[in-house]
Amino acid sequence: HFRLVEPSTSGGYLGRQHVARALWTVDADRDGRVDVMVTHQGEPLALLANETESENAWLRVRLVGRSVARDPVGATVSIRWDRATRMAPLVSGDGFYCRNESVLHFGLGPVSEEQEIAVSVDWPNGQTQTVRAKPNEELLVVQNELEPFVLNRSE
After folding, report:
1. What is the 8-class DSSP label of residue 73?
2. Which of 13, 23, 38, 130 is most deeply packed, by most CB within 10 A?
């Protein structure tokens, strides 16, 4: 769901011209909303903070490999909840002179805070690992650890 934002309401950034060099996504304030950072030629870095109000939930998954590369590019994360399924691969090389945050972000839509989410990781070596999560959590899944580490939880 998108809406048009007038340049006059964007703190002035969108109302000016820039010579940008790189753009990447990051959740800078750890609120579950994806923000954008832009580097420029001849001016400082710009952080465009996503302050969209939403009742929808999210899940963020960070991966750390042990018997595969520590940054396991090529791993695939699938999540399943309430008869819905989403999948995303961990990739690299997704920008020019930059790299998006090494985290997989999933929008869940309107779900209960009590909803259990099955998180399945297919590691690059063929191993599969499944852990459990709740909405609005940022997890760190370490290969071969039985439980994920909850890095952040928003209510």
Report:
1. T
2. 38
Average pLDDT over residues 42-55: 88
Six token digits for residue 91: 């990739």
Q: What is the dihedral of CA 49, 54, 57, 63, to 10 degrees?
A: -10
Hey, what amino acid is at 122?
D
Task: Annotate 74-98 with three-state secondary structure.
Answer: CCEEEEEECCEEEEEECCCCCCCCC
Tokens representing 71 are 């940054």
* Distance in angstroms (rounded) separating the CA atoms of residues 90 and 73: 5
pTM over 0.70: yes
Say if residues 114 and 108 touch (Cβ distance below 8 Å): no
